[in-house]
Amino acid sequence: MPDLPLPDARFADIPLGLALLVLALWLIATRRDRSAVIGFTAYGLLVAVVWVRLGAIDVALTEAALGGGLMGLLLLTAAARLGEPRGQPAPPMFMRLLVGLLCVGVTGVLAVVVLSLPTPAPNLVAAVAEHQHTTELGNPVAAVLVAFRAVDTLLESVVLALAVIVLWSFAPDAAWGERPRTLELGTPGPALVLLARLLPPLGLVVGVHLFWAGADDPGGPFQAGAVLAAMATLMWLARLGAPPPVQSRLTRVGLVVGPLVFLLIGLAGVVAADAFLGYPEGLTKPLILIIEAVKTLSVAVALALLVAGPPALPGNHLPSRAAS
Amino acid sequence: MDWRDVLTLTLVSLGALFFVAGYVGLARFPNALSRMHALSEVDTVGLGLVILGLLPQASWPFGMLKLIALWLVVLLAGGTTGQMLAGAIHAGIGDNDDAASAGSKPGNSRRSAG
């Protein structure tokens, strides 16, 4: 509509920023675990909208899928596991003051650092734009993640597998070989079961689309894996299936295949492209697609297993606060 | 301004009105169930009108289909969470601060969550 004088779109950011601040303050002030978790989930979605307004769609997708989605579920199950604290004395005043001062200090330092940056802030945008064509990827974020800073991405995918191993090591000896039971929270209602039947086919398509589109548009293995993991946890919550037992060979292969293939292709690069994690010319795009496909799978498996919790004995999945 | 822009302005404004009404209801209604009723109206009618209003601006076919799919997914999610929240309130799970909502349900034994 060129003939209509529209107000500056940035005016829409003022209520958004205010809502974010108010919600953050409320999150700190609230005393109930569950309310705080629900508020934190809403906060994650608001932050995702902020990232969209800043033009960082890749970050927004990750924040919405992880901060607004899986993290919310993870924290909700943690809150349910802990139960509501009763009769615990509030921490002494000097402790609260100390924590408050530390938080204000960190915020102040961050604010000073951000505000003292030159405009535009020092960045590698020009360098990425100059060399992006060598990766045959249209999405500069994907080019950085899988080519220019591939070592970081490789280590991140290894960290996810390690996190699952650490989580599993919290299992009591007797529960080893059992399946995770953290998501077995009462009998699911019919509405949840219906949702868990209708949504996963759609989520599967969205997840694969995010992976495939991630080469040229915002998206990528992490966002795709998070959506796929959310679908798995939804089905587990509705008891339409159960998380695999920890000794399932298929699960373990799925967990490590991403980092392993990434590492092998990276090592092959030493011979074929004269650099660890270098891609030989002509094979760049296919190799990157293979890496991203297996990484999507491994991220999905790892995130779903992290939400599902450590293996537990039947009926023993919700220890009370006093017992633990 | 052609007829499509007029349609968009009208329908989106009408939808926004429903959003305002819904959030007034969220702030003013006495108990959790009626507050949820207000919110589900926002989801269905308010968002429906906004999406209907945005359809003439979207590209055919994929832009329009995406908008419609978006509305359907929100309907599905909103309906499900509404049912689950109402179920939790009926079962006495949940921490309503106001005595009005606890008193409005006769025979509401307040069991603890677990």
| Low-pLDDT runs of chain A | 319-324
Name the largest protein-protein interface in this structure. Answer: A-B, 19 and 14 residues
Low-confidence stretches of chain B: 95-114
What value does the average pLDDT of chain B take?
A: 79
- Which bin fits the share of residues in helices of chain B? over 70%
Number of helices in the DSSP assignment of chain B: 4
Radius of gyration of chain A, taken over Cα atoms and rounded to an integer in Å: 23 Å
Number of strands of chain B: 0
Q: How many structural domains in the coordinates of chain A? A: 3
Beta fraction of the residues of chain A? under 5%
Give a quick account of the main beta sheet of chain B: strands, pairing sense, barrel closure: none
| Largest beta-sheet characterization of chain A | none
The ordered string of helix (H) and strand (E) elements of chain B is HHHH
Oligomer: heterodimer
Q: Mean pLDDT of chain A, rounded to whole units?
A: 86
| SSE class of chain B | mainly alpha
Radius of gyration of chain B, whole Å: 18 Å
Please, how many helices of chain A? 11
Measured by DSSP, the beta-strand proportion of chain B falls in under 5%
